[in-house]
Amino acid sequence: MKLYSGNEMVAEAAIAAGCRFFAGYPITPSSEIAERMSKLLPEVGGRFIQMEDELASMAAIIGGSLAGRKSMTATSGPGFSLKQENLGFATIAEVPCVIVNVMRGGPSTGLPTAPSQSDVMQARWGTHGDHPIIALTPSYMREIFDETVRAFNLAEKYRTPVILLLDEVIAHLHEGVALPDPDEIEIVDRKKPTVPPEEYEPFADTEDHVPPMANFFEGYRYHVTGLSHNQKGLPTTDFEVVHAIQVRRQKKIDEHLEDILKWEEIDMDDAEIAVLAYGSIGRSATDAVRELRNEGLKVGLFRPLTIWPFPEQRVAEIAKQVKTIIVPEMNLGQIVLEVERIAKSDARVIGINQVGGVMIRPREIVSRVKEVA
Amino acid sequence: MAFNYDEYVRTETIPHMWCPGCGIGIVMKAIIRAFTALQWDKNDIAFVSGIGCTSRMPGYMDMNTLHTTHGRALAFATGIKLAHPEKHVVVVGGDGDATAIGGNHLIHAARRNIDITLIINDNNIYGMTGGQYSPTTPAHMIASTAPYGMVEPNFDIARLAMGAGATYVARETIAKGIMLEKYIRTGMAHKGFSVIVAESTCPIQFGRRNRLADPVELMHWVRDHGVPKTKAAKMEPDELQGKFVTGELVRDDSRPEFTEVYQQIIDQAMKKGD
Ligand SMILES: Cc1ncc(C[n+]2csc(CCOP(=O)(O)OP(=O)(O)O)c2C)c(N)n1
Ligand code: SF4
Fold first, then answer.
1. What is the C-alpha to C-alpha distance for residues B75 and B248, in angstroms, rounded to an integer?
2. Which of A31, A143, B63, B189 is the least crowded, having the fewest Cβ atoms under 10 Å away?
3. Which residues of B touch A47 (CB under 8 A)?
């Protein structure tokens, strides 16, 4: 058992997952990730660079990944905003990479040193245009390790950027954790083309909708562009081609929900009230649900680890089962909108929303549940 | 026999999208001749650009090509170079792409002295978006956002690159294709950050507005604003007003190159880990 902060844990896990390139720009409360990566990467033959800004950092990790290195950047609120254009590039060009956003209160410079969960919608829709995305929201130290590894694996498997959404509470919390043995860690690498270079189509549809990816310098000389492109990668404005590729990109996520979605449920079997919470508030909610159960209330917890794509089907089932879903989050109401949309009129949806940089504590959840029970 | 450019071109992508008389083609040909002269294996080259007319060039080239976001080509290229320091990374961009939105990346790539070659097609205008002024539009020239003439002072890109620490800097007009090719070739072979400014033409967006619509006339106009380095050395500052100096302006092999320095760090760190 060793003591780690959440940020340090991300760095350890990234190295374990095979990350060999990091580009970043310092910003509180994410900076320790860059600091730790600058130390760890050269030890394993990888490279670290502190770029001139966040746009450049995002650009550099896309370049690094195209050239075959598993790549990551880390940032917080304003930096995440700056990365959005190139994040969109990574989705259209289908470049695997991991972006950590240790959320902080905003808008703008907001609350640099206090926790927040106000970037969940930015993670989904921050860049322009239609595109799929994967975002993960761990709550505990060991989970940060596992979800960081999973972020790299999902990025490689689905040729997509994956966002790891942390908040200041878990990023700066120190906890003792036992890490898995290196050979117990499952590592996924991008699927490589098996056809000769002349036949390679880097954006062709395949059975799983994820085209194999050749790295630069491996003899497959193809074109990568942020413009809408055909299966070969060359720019096109042909309606049918553009439409088909956009739909295929969406399908590669939509048709693998079972593999991508992950959540934890506590006491949901007979629950009449469900609490849905993620990140550090998932911890508060866990304590709250335990306490309420001890008092005899039929309350359960649904804690999504994959926040995007949203576990829509399961939440719809829960809405049919329970009378009320309570969604505590450190924003003025973001995921609660998603839950309302899915629950329709099957369950009453109530948000507990608090900004200002103070965590929502178990007792606030407990008292709200009691009010509505 | 005429030079065969096809070896480095994705011939199936031709015809290209550039206007008749555009200067970009001359720069592209100089780049291809430089690649040929250096005999670089196409599989070992990453050819990267941002956004703009110039930045469409990688799409036509048969190598590992990357057409990125506006202004960010050097940052993407930095990631590629760090992933594979032994490979060749070449970036091409327009004046707006490389010095306005991409200006910050330009000075920092120069500061790091990373082994990337940047070729700037400076046509004094934003071609792709319809002739708005750029940081290099000369004084009083007309642009779609400078209907009364350019009011801002313009960058001297070569001096900017030198000031920031680029270890190879050259400038030539597209009227002198052979010299341009030579500088591009030397810049590519140079270990460190190299910048070659090709003073170029956009007859459609720059020329037409400035009574220089004829491509040849515009090329001569550009050529006549260039002063060779040796001649410039003997000229007074006010004689050089509105002109730019051409030739090999810096060639410095003394500064360490970034990826080599980083490799030493890796070697040390890995030894410690043993
Ligand atoms: C973030 C962003 N801002 C603006 C644009 C619009 N835009 C496209 S090309 C261009 C300027 C191109 O001019 P230059 O770089 O000089 O290249 P040229 O077309 O003259 O070769 C601009 C402003 C964009 N694509 N992205
Ligand atoms: S607009 Fe200008 S720079 Fe663009 S292709 Fe036409 S002539 Fe060339």
1. 25
2. B189
3. 82-83, 262, 266
- pLDDT of residue B240 exceeding 70: yes
Residue type, B143: A
* pLDDT at residue B274, as a whole number: 60
Could you tell me if the CB of B24 is within 6 A of ligand 2? Answer: yes
The residue whose CA is least distant from atom 13 of ligand 1 is B126
Query: Quick check: B260 pLDDT over 90?
Result: yes
CB environment A181-194: b (16+ within 10 A), e (fewer): eeeebeebebeebe
**Mutation choice for ligand 2 from B60, B121, B124, B128, CB with most ligand atoms inside 8 A:** B128
Q: Which ligand is nearest to the CA of B25?
A: 2
Sequence-distant (≥ 6) Cβ neighbours of residue B79 within 8 angstroms: A21, A23, A59, A60, A61, A62, A63, A64, A65, A66, A67, A71
Task: Tell me the torsion sign for CA atoms A109, A113, A119, A122.
Answer: positive
The predicted complex's ipTM stands at 0.97
Residues of chain A above pLDDT 90, percent: 99
Residues of A in contact with B42 (CB under 8 A): 221
pLDDT single digits (tens) A282-312: 999 999 999 999 999 999 999 999 999 999 9
Of the candidates A46, A60, A226, the beta carbon closest to that of B79 is on A60
Is residue B117 within a helix (H) or strand (E), and if so which, with residue range? strand B117-122
Strand residues in A43-160 grouped as ranges (E): 47-50, 70-75, 97-105, 111-115, 134-136
Mean pLDDT calculated for residue range A212-236: 98
Task: For residue B159, give every residue at least 6 positions away whose Cβ sits within 8 Å of its Cβ, in sequence order, or none.
Answer: none
Nearest alpha-carbon partner for A189 in A10, A18, A361? A18
Kindly report the protein residue whose alpha carbon is nearest to atom 2 of ligand 2.
B202
Instruction: Pick the closest to residue A289 from A304, A302, A307 (CA basis).
Output: A302
Instruction: Tell me whether residue A323 is exposed, middle or buried, using C-beta atoms within 10 angstroms of its C-beta: 0 to 12, 13 to 18, 19 or more.
Output: middle
d(CA A72, CA A60): 10
| Cβ–Cβ below 8 Å for B69 and A69 | no
Yes or no, beta carbons of A226 and B68 under 8 Å apart: yes
Closest CA relative to residue A311, chosen from A278, A282, A288: A278
